[in-house]
Amino acid sequence: MSSSESFVTLATNDNYALGALVLAASLRNVQTTKKITILITKTVSESIRNVLHQSFDFVKVVDLLESTDTSLLEALKRPELGVTLTKLHCWTLTQFNKCVFMDADTLVVKNIDELFEREELSAVADIGWPDCFNSGLFVFRPSLETFNQLTQLAAKEGSFDGGDQGLLNTYFSDWATKDISRHLSFIYNMSIVSTYSYVPAFKRFGHQVKVIHFLGSIKPWYCSFNASTGQLNTFCGNTYAQEFIKNWWSIYVAKVHPTIEALNLVGPMSNMAIAPPPGSSICCTSQQPSTGDRFNAWQQGQIDYLGADSFDNIQKKLDAAIDNL
């Protein structure tokens, strides 16, 4: 196993720590030869830290870096993005020569060790603005100099989106034009939204996908899963997203829950019920927005493509309305 290279992820709360545990298990499922590291903040509970130490090669506690651009965060309606600046600490992992950062809401389905052949900063284009890269996965070289320059840039100019992606795209501003080899294929960071927004492409290229990114408000741990049947109890997202969410849960049940159970942890996460014995349901819920909130979100272009506003749900409402005519 390479000791000079590592996958790196980040968790600032227990829910994302759970996602990180599944991510680590998925990397080992595809037989990675690299180390796996997680950065955590003090907001991750002690009980979950015990599980993380069982699953990761390195666990490092870091300070929370928050964005001061409150106006930008408010404009984005995503105040939680501020804590993602904590991601900058990945550049302090100087015991490694090269790393691949992955958000905790990603899932690896095929071996991706070849990413370590790429140079900093290699990443996938963002589907919202392809001249920018998506910071959910990127190749980088740890460097205290880079870390200091990034934090200085954050203090001086802030971030144009209030989070780490805007800041990193400002710092690595030549990503779009300097070197095409730094543009990674979409298969390394496929947003789950894409299975809805461009179905023909997914049908054509989906079998090549290596990394799934559960980008947006629908996270696997907010869905309800039956460990006995291997099926979701509720419809989460669209038909294609369902399969990836079930894949996530299958890894959780097989690889993560046994570790939690062995440590006799009971309900360490406030927003999620730990899996009961096989044959029972694993149920996780998230607060559903009101009709008024959903209308306002539509007006602002914030459409829940994978949830309440998915094509399948809209079609069901249309069919019901037609039946009532």
Q: Would you mind describing this structure in some detail?
A:
- The protein is α/β, with parallel strands linked by helices and 325 residues long.
- It has 2 domains: 2-191, Spore Coat Polysaccharide Biosynthesis Protein SpsA, Chain A, CATH 3.90.550.10; 217-323, no CATH class.
- The protein is built from 10 helices and 13 strands.
- The strands form 3 sheets. Strands 3-2-1-4-7-6-8 form a 7-stranded mixed β-sheet, with helices on both faces. A 3-stranded mixed β-sheet has the order 5-10-9. The chain has a 3-stranded antiparallel β-sheet with strand order 12-11-13, with helices on one face.
- α1 (14-29) runs parallel beside α2 (46-55) and α1 (14-29) packs across α8.
- It is globular, with a radius of gyration of 20 Å.
- The N and C termini lie far apart (65 Å).
- Residues 266-290 and 292-307 have low confidence and may be disordered.
Please describe the topology of this protein.
Elements: E1 2-11, H1 14-29, E2 34-40, H2 46-55, E3 58-61, H3 70-76, E4 98-102, E5 106-108, E6 122-125, E7 133-140, H4 144-157, H5 164-171, E8 183-184, E9 190-191, H6 194-197, H7 199-205, E10 211-213, E11 225-226, E12 231-232, H8 239-262, E13 281-282, H9 291-299, H10 311-323
Parallel strand pairs: 1-2, 1-4, 2-3, 6-8, 9-10
Antiparallel strand pairs: 4-7, 5-10, 6-7, 11-12, 11-13
Helix pairs in contact: 1-2, 1-8
Pfam family, one: Glyco_transf_8
EC number: 2.4.1.186
Keywords: Cytoplasm, Glycogen biosynthesis, Glycoprotein, Manganese, Metal-binding, Transferase
